[in-house]
Write a structure and sequence with these properties.
This protein is an alpha/beta fold and 496 residues long. The chain is 33% helix and 27% strand. It has 16 helices and 26 strands. The protein binds methylmalonyl-coenzyme A and adenosine monophosphate. The site of methylmalonyl-coenzyme A has 25 residues, from helix 8, helix 10 and strand 13.
Length: 496
């Protein structure tokens, strides 16, 4: 694995900084080889066994991820913020044979272990396991990772990438965004999605840079780290920039000055995962002096389009295809559209994923003549792309997370008071879109948003839970009896 080979070269440089301390590349190699030995036990090679891991952001996360790769396993990251049913879904769907947990999450994982025949390992035990002289040779074409992503189906699908895919995704970004070993990124993103795993973490470690990992995003902490003067790179979703702006707005004039000045030490600030409003771009420029570099990507393809590191970054546009990435825009008949005409973005290239885990039908449907169909609509003008929206109303982007309306509806329908429901995404200045639910109650039942939310917290990740709710007598339907979702969006828009 090229990532591991390169790390050998970086030796005593600092790879990771977290709330426990500072770790060199040598220490990361040592810890991950112990994790690999522990995972292997008496085996020669994990041969693509799925290893799910529930580990907070920090050194132990990376040592586990690399350990899985070095043992020949498939890494399946699970969010530490997930409630039990979401954890169970990932463990079951991936058919994980081993689960690695940080000791803080041992209790959380116990109910999963009770009813399943799965080996449980603690990160602390794995990291201190005795080393072995030989680890397997892992070919680049082998499966490396499964990341779960919501789509137009109810349950999330497992996106499988190979080591080669990951390498291609990383190499293109390292060159396009000018990563070097002098970089120091502040990492605040969740580590069960590509943005956090590939763009921020793996690009840093591929380059010999330092990755400073916060356990979760906090506006106060981020501003304080900017003011340390050590950070050179930052990557976030638009909601995070909105939260940083709100924090800056609430500061005193002297603090504002210091905060703004600290941004001049950063060489690059990137935004992605959701549309960056032009107003946020402009506001951030006036606060920090940075023209955010907006890019476009997807779990299945890594990054595809990017504004330039040097040269003009156009607000509201996501730039041009990255090196090695081929893009075409097609109409509903599958024909390529002319410049200036909207079409679906389709992508080819070495970074495109291998398959949806155990779902050959979904994999086949996702490709047309070798092109991956993103479901996103864009326009090309003078070679530069603008994202216009998505084909499906059932995909919601909130706080940078993709949420399937169908998945949320399925969960809400299990509520004892709910007769029918329809979930939609409604535009929102802070979250991009908010998950909103229109609900028809069973006769004689009442339900308020707070009770619905606390019921849902046991079942869904917090960002999937509706933050607005309307109780209706009936759902708006067309002549065919199909729920008219745009009408529901209008109801939420007019009700403020
Ligand atoms: C949380 N809250 C929300 C939402 N999320 N309310 C409405 N809509 C939401 N989406 C509420 C909670 O219920 C809680 O309310 C309060 O906000 C704080 O919750 P918390 O979880 O602490 O929020 P946070 O930590 O401030 O989270 C905001 C965040 C987070 C940092 C923006 O959403 C985030 O990390 N987003 C990044 C997602 C990401 O990396 N996506 C990449 C996937 P109460 O206090 O009342 O309970 S896309 C990808 O990978 C592709 C390849 C790409 O292109 O990048
Ligand atoms: P995910 O499936 O979570 O990887 O999210 C990928 C989706 O995020 C894409 O299909 C787009 O809909 C959206 N996305 C990512 N970057 C951008 C961007 N810069 N502008 C608009 N949408 C984006």
């Amino acid at each position: 694995m090229e990532l591991i080979k390169r790390a050998g070269k970086y030796g005593e440089r600092v790879a990771i900084l977290d709330n426990q301390g500072s770790y060199t590349y040598r220490e990361l190699l040592d810890a991950s080889s112990r994790v690999a030995a522990c995972l292997l036990g008496g085996l020669e090679d994990l041969c693509e066994a799925r290893v799910a891991f529930l580990v907070p952001s920090g050194f132990q996360y990376v040592a586990t991820q690399w350990g899985i790769w070095r043992a020949g396993g498939i890494a399946v990251p699970i969010s530490v913020f997930y409630p039990l049913p979401e954890i169970e879904y990932v463990v079951d769907n991936s058919e994980a044979q081993i689960v690695v947990v940080h000791p803080d999450f041992k209790e959380r994982i116990q109910p999963v272990m009770r009813s399943r025949n799965i080996r449980l390992l603690l990160t602390t035990d794995a990291i201190s396991y005795k080393k072995r002289s030989l680890l397997p040779q892992v070919e680049p074409s082998r499966r490396a990772m499964i990341v779960y992503t919501s789509g137009t189906t109810s349950k999330p699908k497992g996106v499988v990438t190979t080591h080669k895919n990951i390498e291609a995704q990383v190499v293109t970004l390292v060159s396009a965004w000018g990563w070097t070993e002098d970089d120091h990124i502040l990492h605040v993103l969740p580590l069960h999605h590509v943005h956090g795993i590939i763009n921020a973490l793996t690009c840093a470690l591929w380059s010999g840079a330092t990755c400073e990992m916060l356990p979760r995003f906090s506006a106060a902490e981020v501003w304080s780290r900017f003011m340390s003067g050590r950070i050179t790179l930052f990557m976030a979703v638009p909601t995070i920039y909105e939260k940083l702006i709100a924090f800056w707005d609430s500061a005193s004039p002297e603090e504002k000055k210091k905060m703004s000045e600290s941004c001049s030490k950063l060489r690059l600030m990137v935004s992605g995962s959701a549309p960056l409003p032009v107003s946020t771009f402009n506001r951030w420029k006036s606060i920090s002096g940075h023209m955010l570099l907006e890019r476009y990507g997807m779990t299945e393809i890594g990054m595809a389009l990017s504004n330039p590191l040097y040269g003009k970054r156009i607000p509201g546009y996501v730039g041009r295809p990255l090196p090695g990435v081929k893009i075409r825009l097609v109409d509903d008949d599958g024909k390529e559209v002319r410049e200036g005409t909207p079409g679906e973005i389709q992508v080819r290239g070495p970074g495109v994923f291998l398959e949806y885990w155990k779902d050959p039908d979904a994999t086949q449907k996702a490709f047309k003549d070798g092109w991956f169909c993103t479901g996103d609509i864009a326009l090309e003008e003078n070679g530069v792309y603008r994202i216009l929206g998505r084909k499906s109303v059932d995909i919601i982007k909130t706080g940078g997370y993709k949420v399937s309306a169908l998945e949320v509806e399925d969960v809400l329908r299990a509520h004892p008071f709910i007769k029918e429901c329809a979930v939609v995404g409604v535009r929102d200045a802070q979250w991009g879109e908010r998950v909103c639910a229109a609900i028809v109650l069973k006769e004689g039942c009442t339900l308020d948003l707070d009770s619905l939310r606390s019921w849902a917290k046991e079942r869904l990740a917090v960002y999937k839970i509706p933050s607005r709710m309307l109780v209706l007598k009936e759902l708006p339907r067309n002549a065919m009896g199909k729920v008219v979702k745009p009408d529901i969006v209008t109801l939420f828009t007019v009700s403020g």
